[in-house]
């Protein structure tokens, strides 16, 4: 019986060892160090789902885990990406997109609402209400200058997108939009003035792109555009005026 028990125990050890070899995945180097620093298998990333694998561009390496991924390059180091931010990055083409590789782990926005991850070419922001959206270029500094997610614009509700005329970019936010072109720079439009501009077909209409943020003009709120302006008051509502003074 003792010999049989020993054989049974030995068989269990061998089977366990084979299962580890078959089901286990290789995690090593800087990716392993990052994974362990985040709690390893007991952390939010949990168990690996792939071996460490070269990226298609040949620059970096990655491991996918049950709870996310870790990407590494010699220039960026190893950083985790997970959740809805990872899903957005994947939808944009991973590291082959304009965002490139992650240069930070996912971080808290500090407002109790959102999170973000920085990439070589931009940032993905997420909140439960707005979802995950990417920003890059001159629109993001403008948004940050307006206090970012803590300001009145709130979180992005669209990715940074090329305008239909391919001259500019825009991002829609919870409470407004920012439009940019090389000629006009980046300017916000919101509230009833934005609604009026939208009704006139945005930048494709006769007003063109915004050339100012909204500002106070006597008893009106006003935004200037390439070929006119829109002004608003509670008494009159929003009216679009051509540069020559004609009201539309």
List key phrases describing it:
single chain; 248 residues; alpha+beta; four-stranded antiparallel β-sheet; 16 strands; 23% helix; elongated; disordered N terminus
Q: How are the SSEs placed, and which strands pair?
A:
Layout: H1 2-23, H2 29-37, E1 53-54, E2 61-65, E3 68-73, E4 77-81, H3 83-92, E5 107-108, E6 114-119, E7 122-127, E8 131-135, H4 139-145, E9 161-162, E10 169-173, E11 176-181, E12 185-189, H5 191-199, E13 215-217, E14 220-225, E15 228-233, E16 237-242
Antiparallel strand pairs: 1-2, 2-3, 3-4, 5-6, 6-7, 7-8, 9-10, 10-11, 11-12, 13-14, 14-15, 15-16
Task: Report how far the terminal alpha carbons are from each other.
Answer: 98 Å
Got a strand count?
A: 16
Tell me the helix content: 10-25%
Low-pLDDT parts are 1-23
Largest sheet: 4 strands, antiparallel
- The SSE order reads HHEEEEHEEEEHEEEEHEEEE
**Gross morphology:** elongated
Helix/strand/pairing category:
alpha+beta
What is the radius of gyration?
A: 26 Å
Strand order of the largest sheet: 1-2-3-4
Mean pLDDT: 90
Q: How many H/I helices? A: 5
Strand content: 25-35%
Characterization of the model:
It is built from 5 helices and 16 strands. With 248 residues, the chain is α+β, with helices and mostly antiparallel strands. A 4-stranded antiparallel β-sheet has the order 1-2-3-4. Strands 5-6-7-8 form a 4-stranded antiparallel β-sheet, covered by helices on one side. The longest helix is centred in the N-terminal third of the chain and has 22 residues. The radius of gyration is 26 Å and the shape is elongated. The termini are far apart.
